[in-house]
Amino acid sequence: MPPPPSALTASAAASSFLRSLPPPNLPAHATLRPNPSLRRSAGHSRVVARASASGAAGAEAETVFFDGGAHYGDLAANLVLGLTLLWLPLTLASVSRALLLRYRFTSRRVTVISGLSGDDRTDFPYSSVREVVVVPRFIGEWGDIVITLKDGTKVDLRSVPRFREVADYCRKMAAAEGGLVAR
User: Fold this and answer.
1) Tell me: the pLDDT tens digits for 156-168?
2) Do residues 71 and 141 touch, judged by C-beta distance below 8 A?
3) Which domain of life does the protein's organism represent (predicted)?
4) Which residue, 26, 43, 80, 170, shows the most beta carbons closer than 10 Å to its own?
């Protein structure tokens, strides 16, 4: 049995195939210009699409309902409690949440952005939401939101400010798209 092709030979074969494709047939007067509806996000190699009024029919602009990180009260309470060595691991987790985590709820999707440079990004549409559960923290000032997706995945959003409003908005959007399971 022959050995499997290495990644180097596979990428070489793919690049030779792509180089062998003929250029598209363009009229002589056509020039290639960048698409104004696409933009690169600053510092990242991803391309972010922007909805425009002249775009596809029925496409409405994506509006942001909530965009923010963990509640500042969670960080403050954990820093005070971190003076005891017993609470120190929870304090470090709170600091990392405050520095590295952002939540964005828009009219189309839920986005969780994490990591030092924000490259670790998770998006899911409201149509994939099966259940939304809230857990209040510190006398209800902030809370956790647990979103269960249709495939059984649980997304845990910790220390969300205005968590009741955000959870209600998520439930409303999921019900509008037919994703939320009625109980």
Assistant:
1) 999 899 899 999 9
2) yes
3) Eukaryota
4) 170
